[in-house]
Design a protein that fits this description.
By secondary structure, this protein is an alpha/beta fold. It has 3 domains: about 190 residues, Roll (Elastase, domain 1); about 200 residues, no CATH class; about 35 residues, no CATH class. A hairpin with a 5-residue loop joins strand 7 and strand 8. The radius of gyration is 24 Å and the shape is globular. It binds zinc ion (ZN). The site of zinc ion (ZN) has 4 residues, from helix 3 and helix 4. The site of zinc ion has 4 residues, from helix 3 and helix 4.
């Protein structure tokens, strides 16, 4: 969400308080990583968020004694419930005691509504629910007695984390975990905007990886709207955010799932077809794109030198001095904290719009990561006239995201195979059309990436 809209909503929307990260995460000294909830404002004005909380898109039902939904047991929930959470006298919900059950229930609504607000702004329109043929609103169930959580057709229902012995850990309600809620909403967003493969012949391997990656990216971009989280990220790294060797620089934030996912250094040759594993190089390529755009802005504003930017980018396989790079970032950041933050938030908003434009145009059928790369380049042309094309290409090339060896995109056409020579040789002519192709040598893949 743009900085301007965020400021405007803070004046007109309904206030809640939520924790940027789960309360059980602690610093090295044992104190909470985020000890205080941060005030967030959702777009419906006071009065439009009614008891529940509920609005025109979603509603909380604090079910009592409910079993998880399954194939035969689906929404709407009609069983016993706790009373709905009531707004304060001004219509806000920021009066709730963080130790109360009402606070947990309100957190679930505020998180999902906030993430939806953020992404609807990037899409520039309403995101309609993929289940709108059956239900008008999303049902949110915050605290069922279950050591798991799930999203499904028309609902999100959340239980608790597990103790080491597998029993329910009531100190870890999933509904207070911003990452998990945002990730699950990300799946709904992809169902709504990209859809699902139509053909039973489509194995959907990259589609599955894209789904998990999108869930994480929806969460990462949304979490970069918490000022406390952005401040901590920049204070720890001084803006040296590229992912290679990144985790040791983010200190205690490396305990958070989102940061671990974003700062991964995996390439396609490191992962298998399992969707979560396969998502990591794609998420890394896209997060790196944001970081490179951030650093480009720092160079443009003369906050870091082009030379430092190049040095920090070309890390893999080189013998550059990582400590010197960090020292140079620290020197550049000190005294320019606000300017660094503004550049990072601008890069965040570019990434949000880039992804929204990409997902709006992406076909789910026989989807490949290389197809996503092409859609991202198209989206960048739409948004910036192609200013960031070189950055996007480089970030994806490093992750080894390229056409698959059997892609028809790699087929070479000679004058002979095209029948444009005066006397085509019979064997070469037969190779044209849709005959099985011989994989191109590795060198020609490289050429196509540029
Ligand atoms: Zn997922």
């Amino acid at each position: 969400m743009s900085l301007e809209l965020d400021l405007r909503l803070a004046e007109t929307g309904t206030r809640f308080r939520i924790f940027p990260q789960p309360r059980f995460l602690t610093k090295a000294d044992g104190t909470p990583l985020f000890g205080e909830p941060e005030t967030v404002t959702v777009s419906p004005p006071p009065g439009a968020v009614t008891a529940g909380p509920a609005d025109d898109r979603m509603f909380v039902v604090d079910a009592v004694g409910k079993l998880p939904y399954n194939q035969f047991f689906r929404p709407p929930y009609t069983g016993a419930t706790n009373p709905p959470v009531q707004p304060g006298p001004e219509g806000h919900f920021d009066h709730l005691d963080p130790a109360s059950r009402d606070f947990s229930a309100a957190t679930m609504y505020a998180t999902v509504r906030r993430v939806l607000d953020i992404w609807q702004d990037y899409f520039g329109r309403t995101i309609e629910w993929h289940f709108s043929t059956a239900f008008a609103k999303l049902e949110l169930i915050p605290l069922i007695e279950w050591n798991n959580a799930q999203s499904g057709f028309g609902f999100l229902e959340f239980g608790f984390g597990r103790t080491p012995t597998g029993t329910i850990d009531h100190t870890r309600p999933f509904c207070e975990n911003f990452d998990v809620l945002a990730h699950e909403l990300g799946h709904s967003l992809i169902f709504a905007e990209v859809g699902v493969p139509a053909s039973p012949l489509d194995e959907g391997i990259d589609y599955g990886g894209m789904h998990e990656s999108a869930g994480d990216l929806v969460a990462i971009v949304a979490s970069l709207h918490f000022h406390s989280l952005v401040d901590m990220l920049l204070d720890n790294t001084k803006g040296n955010l590229l992912t290679i060797n990144g985790l040791d620089r983010v200190g205690e934030l490396s305990d958070t799932r989102q940061v671990r996912i974003a700062l991964n250094a995996l390439r396609m040759s490191d992962v298998d077809d399992e969707p979560h594993n396969r998502s990591l190089p794609l998420t890394g390529a896209i997060f790196d794109t944001m970081v490179e755009v951030f650093q480009q802005d720092l160079v443009d504003k003369k906050l870091i030198s082009e030379e430092l930017r190049t040095r920090s980018t070309n890390l893999p396989g080189t013998a550059l001095d990582l400590e010197q790079i960090q020292a140079d970032f620290t020197a550049a950041y000190t005294g320019n904290e606000a300017a660094f933050k503004e550049s990072l938030l601008l890069a965040r908003d570019y990434l949000g719009r880039l992804l929204a434009t990409t997902w709006s145009d992406l076909s789910p059928d026989f989807l490949t990561y290389h197809g996503i790369l092409r859609a991202l380049l198209d989206a960048d042309r739409t948004l910036t006239g192609g200013v960031n094309a070189a950055i996007i290409r480089a970030c994806f090339a490093w992750r080894e995201i390229a056409p698959v060896p059997t892609s028809m995109l790699l087929r070479q056409h000679t004058l002979t195979s095209c029948g444009l020579e005066s006397t085509p040789a019979p064997a070469a002519a037969a190779a044209d059309g849709y005959a099985p192709m011989i994989p191109a040598p590795r060198g020609s893949h490289q050429n196509l990436r540029r």
